[in-house]
Write a structure and sequence with these properties.
Distance between the termini: 59 Å
Oligomer: single chain
Helix content: 40-55%
Shape: globular
Structural class: alpha+beta
Number of strands: 5
Order of helices and strands: HHHEEHEEE
């Protein structure tokens, strides 16, 4: 019995040691996916700008407190995201997320690592929490302060 208790305690200690690393890896993966699927065509500046918006939302009490929860925020029905009802469109556009462009995926992972290890900003994006492609004009954009355009995205703050 004592052996089982010691073994159980050792297992719990191991899990407590590993869980933060796994959680960090999951958050990094969520960041890289968002950068890749939202802005891979925009190069490193566009991906970095999207990542800064995600960082800003994580720090803002009006939004979820983790990267994964921020990028997966939206309407759900029976545990599944409702198509086109997410904060980050790639997450619920109905397409299977598969990073096919190796160079862009590597770049997204590099930028995600930087964003997850330090607080990064760009001039004009210090308080940005929203963005959209220049090809659309969402109704919420009129109520926000336009900050800056980077590539094909326009960034806003409340």
């Amino acid at each position: 019995m004592a052996f089982l208790i010691r073994a159980s305690l050792a297992l719990v200690a191991l899990l407590l040691f590993l869980l933060p690393a796994q959680a960090d890896a999951l958050q990094m993966r969520c960041m890289a996916e968002a950068l890749y699927f939202e802005a891979r065509s925009e190069g490193w500046r566009g991906m970095l700008a999207v990542g800064i918006v995600i960082q800003n939302r994580v720090k803002d009490s009006r939004y979820p407190a983790t990267v994964c929860r921020v990028v997966r925020q939206g309407r759900y029905w029976r545990g599944n995201p409702v198509k086109h009802k997410c904060q980050f469109s790639y997450y619920c556009d109905g397409k299977h997320e598969r990073a096919a462009e190796k160079e862009a995926w590597g770049q997204a992972n590099d930028i995600a690592a930087i964003l997850m290890s330090t607080d990064v900003t760009m001039v004009g994006l210090e308080d940005s929490t929203h963005y959209h492609a220049v090809s659309v004009r969402p109704p919420w954009s009129a109520a926000l302060k336009r900050r800056r355009q980077i590539g094909e995205h326009i960034f806003y703050a409340r």
